Amino acid sequence: MTKDLDTLATALYVKIDDHLTAFPHLAPRRPRVGIKPALSDAELVTLAVMSALLGFTSERRWLRYAREHLAGMFPRLPRQPGYNKRLRAASPLVITMIEVLGRDTSLWSDDVWVVDSTPVECGRSRETTRRSALAGWAEYGYCASHSRFFWGLRLHLVCTLGGLPVAFALTGAKADERTTLLGMLDAAGDLVARHPGQTIIADKHYYGRAFEHALTSSGLRLLRKARKGEPARAGTELFKPLRQTIESINQTLKGQLDLERHGGRTPAGVVVRVSVRVLALTAAIWHNDKTAQPTARSLTAYDH
User: Which of helix, strand or coil describes residue 54?
Assistant: First the structure.
């Protein structure tokens, strides 16, 4: 493990622990009477983020590695079933910390957002689609960017141009991207109110008078490529190079954080595994921003 990752892990642990001290209701509920866990909730989430940054897709392999190489930082680790159960229970904390870290960066005030969705494959065999606990939520979909069909979910992301996740959602593969975006912005509380006049860059699938009216009513400006048969839209030539930003962010999640190798077999398992990867990206950007690194979204210092 590199010194940079050790520093990031320490800073992240302190940030989570301080937030739990200020807002104890975010901690997973436990019986009043019982054995206190040897691994704190802040340590648990930090451990999960480290596993994503280091490229571990198996919890058993990760815990074996941690026992051998990270005993100084985490002297008492649970077994895999206990680790998995506690991590799923900590899902609300993981999601909360994504916003907490994001708001604590200079990138949060960016006046341009990019939005898109990317496949999160959950199975390939026909038998899996029938027997999986994800059946009914996961479904068949098509990814036009890579010209492939898949069975699973879609991760919808709203990010700054620097790659910082602002909002995200997991839906079925066929969910309407426009409806999902409006739902994400509505569920994000005061996010839109704190960013008046924000510009959103999207692809041509984010269209429709009612959809654009809803964004405009919220004080948001939509930039997208004109669809076939539509007149040319103002500003198209300006955001073409920026449109690739969201593809690059998706590739970071898939290529470096193994988004599609999440290993989740239940809705709760998929949600926390995907959320941890979004938190890992956010934590790296947060730490790079605080330490004035030249590239905020670079994970190179933390992935080995």
Answer: coil
Q: Calculate the alpha carbon distances from 159 to 172, 216, 300 in Å.
A: 20, 19, 20
From the candidate CATH numbers 3.30.10.20, 3.30.420.10, 3.40.930.10, 3.50.50.60, the one assigned to the domain spanning 109-260: 3.30.420.10
Kindly report the pTM of this predicted structure: 0.94
DSSP strand pairing (112-123 vs 199-201): parallel
Decide: helix, strand or coil at residue 115: strand
Return phi, psi of residue 19, to 5°: -70, -40
DSSP 117-179: EEEEEEE-SHHHHHH-TTBTTBEEEEETTTTEEEEEEEEEEEEETT--EEEEEEEETT--HHH
Burial call 42-53: b when 16+ CB within 10 Å, e when fewer: bbbbbbbbbbbb
In tens, the pLDDT along 264-290 reads 999 999 999 999 999 999 999 999 999
Q: How do residues 147-165 score in pLDDT, each as one tens digit?
A: 889 999 999 999 999 999 9
Contact between 266 and 272 under an 8 Å Cβ cutoff? The reply is no
> Are the C-beta atoms of 279 and 272 separated by less than 8 Å?
no
Listed in sequence order, the DSSP H helices in the chain are 3-22, 41-53, 59-69, 80-89, 91-103, 126-131, 177-187, 209-217, 236-251, 267-290
Q: What is the pLDDT of residue 106?
A: 96
Segment 70-93, tens digit of pLDDT: 999 999 999 999 999 999 999 999
User: Which residue is associated with the tokens 């302190």?
Assistant: 14
Q: Which two tokens stand for residue 197?
A: 């006049």
> What amino acid is encoded at 44 in this protein?
L
